[in-house]
Amino acid sequence: MVHSTWTNGRLAELYEDCRARYWSNEPVLRSYRIERGIGDPAQRGWDPDARVIRIDPADHTSDRELCATVLHEMAHVVAGQSAHGPRFWEQIEYLLEQGAPVMLKTGELSGCGATLEAPIPERFVLARQAFEPDAGRGSGNQDGVRSRATGTGRKRRRPYYGE
Length: 163
Ligand SMILES: [Zn+2]
Hints:
- The chain has 163 residues and is mainly alpha-helical.
- Helix content is 41%, strand content 9%.
- The protein has one domain (8-132): 2-Layer Sandwich (Zincin-like), CATH 3.30.2010.
- A three-stranded mixed beta sheet has the order 1-3-2. The protein has a two-stranded parallel ribbon with strand order 4-5.
- The N and C termini lie far apart (35 Å).
- The chain binds zinc ion.
- Zinc ion binds next to helix 2.
């Protein structure tokens, strides 16, 4: 895994690259900046009042993971939604269509202060496919695999993203 040093300057380059590549028609992203958010975890994520996205590079085990977090926060900005509601998922689905390095893990989804209460609506097929529950959190999926393999027909536990 590659984990390089993320200065504010490099974060800004990554942000600009993502903006130009995926959201060149979204003026709202031009009014935001990105910075290292080390220290208070409550300060991380996107801050609509200060118009800043704060990322703690140390929270990430690879550059790809860090990039996924930046895209996640940018999706919140474009959606104008701090929760994981339909407007947020529209952006994630769009990114997945573009082949963007989005990661949808339980920790990733709960880490920004938004909780897991919001289901991924069924129409966001790519987002639902891309969802990877963290080990220990995804017992619903493991049950599903087991019941298929053994043919017991045991009722699957509903995954958190629901209907
Ligand atoms: Zn989020």
